[in-house]
Amino acid sequence: MLPSPVSSNRRGTSQHLRTFSSSDLKRALSLLRARSRFTNLSIIILTGCFCISVLYNLAFIFSSTSPSLVAYTPPQSILSTIARNSTLENLSHLVIVPGHAIWTGTQPDQVLDMDRWTLEEYQRGGGSYRIAAFVEHIRRGVEITLKDDASLLIFSGGQTRLQSTTTEAESYMRLATSLGLFHPDSERTPHEAYFPRATTETYALDSYQNFLFSLARFHEITGRYPLQVTIVGYEMKRRRFQELHRTALRFPAHHFEYVGIEPSANEESARIGEVKNGYAPYKLDLYGCHDFLLGKRRARNPFLRFHSGLLEWCPDDAGMVYDGPLPWDVYE
Questions:
Q1: Which of 161, 266, 313, 322 has the smallest number of Cβ neighbours within 10 A?
Q2: What element of type H or E holds 269?
Q3: What are the tens digits of pLDDT across the range 175-217?
C-alpha cells in the first residue's frame, strides 16, 4: 500500500495549480483586452496615415495635369501703392504688339540704324527691312489704339538679350515715344506728353507668353479682362496666334483679331523657319513647356526674370487643352 501522504500531496498540488490559474487568469485577460484595444487603435491610426499618404502622393503625381488658374493676390503692402486711373477702368480692347528685338537708341534718326538694335544672328541678314517691319508693327499698334478710345496698347517682351540692360517692351515704348506716335498732331518736343492708354509687359519670353502675360497686364491696369484682343505682328505668325495660342487660352474667336504685317522683302526662308521653329513645335506643345520650346524660353531668360502668372498649365499630354475656368468664358 502506498503511503497516504503521497495522495494528499497530489491533491495539494492540484489545488495549488487551480489557485494559481484562477488568480492570474483575470489579470491576464485584462492585460490581453487592454493590449487588444491598443492594437485596434494603432491599426486605425496606421490605416489613416496610409490613406493620407496615398492621396498626397497621387495629388503630387497628377499635379502637373491638374487645371490651375492662378489667383494671385499681392500683399497689402503692394496693393496700398496702387491707385488705378479711373479713366482706364472701362477699357475693353487689348492691343498687343509682341517684341522681336531691343532698340537701344533714343533719337528718331536712330530708329533704322542696325547698330542701335540688339538682334539675334538670324535677324541681321538681309539689311534693314526686318527692322522696318518692327517699326511698322509699333506704328500700326499705336494707330489702332488711337482710333479706339476703349483700347489699351501693350508692348510685350522681356529682357531676352544678355547684351541689353532693358526689355523688348520698354524699347518699343521708347521708340514710339521718340517718334511722337502717340501725339501725331502735336509739335514734337524733347519731352513727349504722357499717353495713359499705352503700357508695357516686360516678362514674356515667347509668343504664347506675349498673349497670356498681356491679358494679365491688362487686368493689372484696368481691374478687368479685355472683351476684345487685337495682336499686331508678322503675317507669317498669324496661324500660330489664331490657331494655337488663341486655342490654348480658349479666347473666343469672334473677339480676336490678328493684324499681319510682313517685311517688304520676300523672305521665304523666314516663313520656312516660322513653320519649323514656331508653328510646328507649338502644335505639338500648345503651352510651350516641354523640351524644345522650354529650352528656347530658358535661353531667352539670362536674367532669371519671372511673372507671377495667370494660368499654370503644363500637361504631360502636350496637346491637351486646359479645360478649367477662365475669366473670359463669359464672352462665349
A1: 266
A2: helix 268-274
A3: 999 999 999 887 666 566 789 999 999 999 999 999 999 999 9
Between strands 117-118 and 102-103, the pairing is antiparallel
Half-sphere exposure of 83 (CA within 13 A, CB side): 1
Place of cell 509682341: 98
Determine the pLDDT at residue 14: 44
The answer to whether residue 315 scores a pLDDT higher than 80 is: yes
* Cβ contacts of 281 within 8 Å, gap of 6 or more: 288, 292, 293
Nearest residue to 259 via CA among 162, 150, 137, 155: 137
Residue labelled with grid coordinates 490581453: 32
Q: What tens digit of pLDDT does each residue of 233-271 get?
A: 999 999 999 999 999 999 999 999 999 998 766 677 778
The pTM assigned to this predicted structure is: 0.74
The set of cell numbers assigned to 184 is 501725331
Residue 153: beta bridge partners? 95, 198
pLDDT 10s digits, 79-102? 889 888 899 999 999 999 999 999
Helices of type H across 148-197? 168-178
How high is the pLDDT of residue 17? Answer: 43
CA–CA distance, 260 with 264 (Å, rounded to integer): 13
Which DSSP state fits 30? H
Nearest to 197 by CA among 232, 157, 243, 147: 147
Query: What does the alpha-carbon distance between residue 139 and residue 156 come to, in Å, rounded to a whole number?
Result: 15
Residues 97, 233 contacting (CB under 8 angstroms): yes
Q: HSE of 131 in the Cβ direction (CA atoms, 13 Å)?
A: 21
| DSSP state at residue 69 | B
Number of neighbouring beta carbons within 10 Å of residue 270: 19
For residue 169, give the nearest of 145, 204, 193 by alpha carbon.
204
How far out from the chain centre does Cα 123 lie? 27
CA angle centred on 143, ends 138 and 147, rounded to 5°: 150
CB-based contact 297:157 (threshold 8 Å):
no
Report which listed range, 13-17, 104-108, 271-275, is most confident: 104-108
